[in-house]
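Notes from hallway chat w/ T.B., transcribed later so I don't forget. T.B. wanted the structure written out for a chain they're using in a teaching module, and asked if we could keep both sequence and structure tokens in one place. Agreed to drop them here.
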Amino acid sequence: MKLSLNKSFVSLLACVIPSHAITLLQVLQSYSELTTLSSYVNASSNATALLANANNFTFLASSNAAIASFLSKNPNVLTADLLQATLEYSLLRGGYPTLSFSDTPQFVASNLVNSSYANVTGGQTVELLQSSGGAETLSGNKTISTSSSADIVCTGGIIHIIDTVPSIPVSAVSEITAANLEYFVSILNVGGYLNPANAYVNQILEVPDVTYFIPNSAAALANVTEQVKNTSAAELQSTFEYHVVPGFVGYSTLLTNGMQLKTAEGGNLTVTVQGGEMYINAAKVVASDYIVANGVVHVIDK
């Protein structure tokens, strides 16, 4: 008989603590590979309070090597605000032992709700996935963190020691650049969407809970290049807004065959799942689930 773990049971497991269990802060102090993280937490009253008061959680604890790598690539960026936001993003709501990870991604909420960094209802998410490389957490720009030591039980939750600091998701436009979606960057330029006068672009980036469908191909660029020759500014705005679904963070696991999505332009998009492939109207989804500050980005071929 095949056993399965539902979310409620997993959360229950996270709260079943033996009498000798130690606190999250004590775990940070007792593991040699967490001394750097522990020193940062001890130096901040806000960070200490966040972790001391956590309950029913999974904490992604960045190892000494992970933090050293982050600092070498990002010198002089670790402000008190960024440290706090990163800790909040590393503190997931609910218990997720590695046994609950599977090859079907799970998108789980964190404690990051600071509007300077996130604009999604219930807290910014991370993706949990079991791959051939083991239990993985995917964060901004699909940054992969692998659990080097997992399922450490403490009072109120579970700790996974990870080898890469989670990357806080950035705005959709910044993510498009970071992910090297070069054709869509050109589409934004050709269509005049980067013009500060086109306020609707920034307005969409600032609203919560958005799903973006981003065309990134030579054919899509050629189509827009031809379109701008005989298209008004209002029509170009409608084209942009037709690729945006507000009020819904549509991770791939939530997009089902036959689903209708209402766009910012007012029209509907139809989701088709066929032969293991997903289509939005006639456009094929070629990459999915780029987590961004106010939602999620999927890349389509036209």
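Follow-up for T.B.: Residues 1-17 have pLDDT under 50 and may be disordered. Might be a good example for the class.
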